[in-house]
UniProtKB/TrEMBL annotation:
Gene3D superfamilies: 3.30.420.40. The keyword Kinase applies. This is Glucokinase. Pfam families: ROK (PF00480). The keyword Electron transport does not apply. Keywords: Kinase, Transferase. It comes from the Bacteria. Belongs to the ROK (NagC/XylR) family. SUPFAM superfamilies: Actin-like ATPase domain. GO terms for molecular function: kinase activity. InterPro entries: ATPase_NBD, ROK, ROK_cs.
Amino acid sequence: MALANLDGEILHQIRRPLEYLPDRNTALEHLKVMLSEVTGSALDGRLLRVGIAVGGLVDARRGLVRTLHRAHGWDHFPLQDYFTEQVEVPCIIDNNANAAALAECIYGVGRGERVVLYVGLGRGIGGALVVDGKVYHGVSCTAGEIGHMLVVQEGGPRCSCGGFGHLEAVASAQAIVNRLIGRSVNYPETEAAIRRITDGRAERITAAQVFQLAAEGDELARQGVEEVCTYLGIALANIVHLVNPSMIILGGSVAQAGDLLIGPLRERLQRLCLPAAFQDLRIVQGSLGTDANLVGAVTLALQDL
């Protein structure tokens, strides 16, 4: 959570883990405390607007959280109205991928681009399409949910939404890590490599470290990276042919792998896409890094001010 000025400059921020809180009411109480702490740092005491970026299905037009796949009790919750009552100023809510995409297009690497596809590769996978500086939401505000595109034939791994074979189930940070750890049980060399790169804390390995092991020559990690690029390539090639973006921005923790991800993915897309669709396409790592969602929330608040 952060306080920013009208130029989008973050003046004060705090970070607290919320994903392990037991229920919605406890989470809301924590958010109220954080909100009080942040707004209390305002130099002149004036708060103009609040932007909220949510990692789940959001109805941005009605200000509702439709559902959070990894948390219970949030279905159809009016989070926008809740915050409006707390701070007594207008609030704007949207999906975190939409918010991060907008931030990258205004403050980051996507500035000046007409059609941008943003892909957030983290614990889950989200996406957003920005056209002429505006997020495309679709009829029911579910546009961009590329994590739930079907990329594996029937019988693929289960997704957080309950479906099977979705992109998120095979290419998210959690999927990348779980796949390598699961396969390494019968491969002592890979197990040793994981312990080495994590200083003996194998359970803390990150997706970016899996890519690093692949670059160092670990065969299991290399296979895993190849699978990720295959699945991402399928999903992104379909989107490229549909909307013809000039830029694909990769964000989230998986994107921290940088060229270890972007290089193979670019080669895969070049093979899968029509030459005319690929020739002007750039695939880049987001420039806002771990602050993309936070800056995205600020960007939401600053819209039309």
